[in-house]
Amino acid sequence: MVVDKPASAGHSDASNGKTEDGLKVTKPARPKTKSDASTDACHVSEATSDHSHERELESPTPAQDDGHPAGVCGPILTIDDVPQRIRDTEYAVRGAVVARSWELAKQLRDNPGSLPFSEIIPANIGNPQAVGQKPIAFNRQVLACVTNPHLMDQPGLFPADVVSRARSYLKSFPSFGAYSHSKGIPQLREDIARWFTKRDGILTDPEHIMLTDGASPAVRTVLELLLESSRDGVMIPIPHYPLYSATITRLGGRAIGYYLKEEDQWGLDMGELQGALDKARQAGGRVRALVVINPGNPTGGILTRQQMVDVVEFCEREKLVLLADEVYQDNVYLDEKPFVPFRRVLADLSSPLELFTFHSSSKGVTGECGVRGGLLHAHNVDEAVIEQLYKLFSISLCANTLGQAMIASILTPPEPGSPSYDQYTRERRAIFSALQRKAILVHRKLNEMKGVSCQRVEGAMYAFPRIELPPRAIEAARQAGQQPDMFYCLQLLEHTGVIVVPGSGFGQRPGSLHYRMTILPEESKLGGVLDRIKDFHDQFLAQYS
Ligand SMILES: Cc1ncc(COP(=O)(O)O)c(C=O)c1O
């Protein structure tokens, strides 16, 4: 991850090109390049002696733009040809720890009993249905009907409200196998606009909503609007979900990190934001926007209303567009810390600030990551800019229509008194209350471990515990050529089968070490998983103390 560091950023570790917090600052050693390749594969087969090789080099064949003599064969696409911004792009959630887990999973299959654990527990990614969460029936039934309308002809197969919902979708969009409008199926956007209107108390125009294949492409497309050159920057929280740093790097922009305040439930520190912004501007950057993830990934924190007001005023003052990632708005576990939409705060302040918000079917209590439907909503945004967004989405024609139906049906659940209502409410409550209990359990058990401190999991699906490692462990990591948090997470995997993600993948303050763990493993297993982590942790400390 390449991120402009706040003033307090750490020293770089020359041995591996990373700063203490793991953010990449230099290029890694490169694999074989075009020039290496063109002197072996192609030329060796043609040049039978040193002499003929010389002749070939002296030949008058004109060079092409790419430096290859015309007609000389050789790889056209080598690692050197891949744009630097792509090579610099990093995404830790599926990094080295996950790669090693695949090897261990294979070993468990091929040679059961050869490892100190019998299964791999993926606690690295917010993918609820991969770890046993059941889908909510209503949404899936609606999708079944729009996918195969004949099912609706079978009396009693589906509840009447499922059938009427599916029929209403099909009435406006008769075949879900067709491309839809590039902003999304109009009727679904109208339903979603009504949901927004009710949630925020602000009349919502369906033309300001775009349905996407999950929040990720929505975020990428908005960032594309904002980044013109390598001078252009977007402020992102540290730690943060690395979609942002990865996409900004991929688009050739500048990620400007601002640290969250760990000791304050990972809240916002306005002095820190101001410092990061001023520093980026002094360095010649053109700062365009600010990203807030609320509830937070990987932090599990929820912003207070006052912090949100401060952010809005900051963005107004500094002329920054606000990007609010609200994909975890239904994952809110404490009554005293409710979720407040940024749009609502803007309305309360009568703010003209431009705001893009993102939502997704992947999170909440539905966890429909594989049937991804996402959306972006543009608030106070110039119509001509919305036209440009529409154009960008139209390049890929449309989002998957089933994902569109998924996010629409999630946001317009069965009404009280309708045939599906009771089952829907039961399923939703069961998932939500399990998440709530798991959030408390993970927080408590992590804090019981020596040298581990973890802020409350107020929302989202993650704990981000801070770990103090003994100097001998840091030295062992250095000798292994790994960041200390990576070393710890790899050791944890080898001993317990539990996959977590090193904090450096999300960014962390220099000198501090963390990892991200999801709260998602099944409730029946989670206590045991945490006990295994504790046993490992105690042994690790004993070994390196
Ligand atoms: C904060 C945040 N934003 C966006 C996404 C992407 O979600 P989607 O699956 O909708 O692309 C994630 C996924 O984990 C996330 O945590």
From TrEMBL:
Ranges of biased composition (kind: Basic and acidic residues): 48-58
Biological process (GO), any one: L-alanine catabolic process
Segments forming domain Aminotransferase class I/classII large: 161-521
Keywords of the record: Aminotransferase, Pyridoxal phosphate, Transferase
UniProt keyword annotation of Hydrolase present: no
Domain of life: Eukaryota
Cofactors (names): pyridoxal 5'-phosphate
Keyword Metal-binding tagged: no
Pfam families named among the record's database cross-references: Aminotran_1_2 (PF00155)
GO molecular function terms attached to this record: pyridoxal phosphate binding; transaminase activity
Region of interest (Disordered), residue spans: 1-72
Family: Belongs to the class-I pyridoxal-phosphate-dependent aminotransferase family. Alanine aminotransferase subfamily.
Assembly information from the UniProt record: Homodimer.
Protein name per its UniProtKB record: Aminotransferase class I/classII large domain-containing protein
Classification of source organism: Eukaryota, Sar, Alveolata, Colpodellida, Vitrellaceae
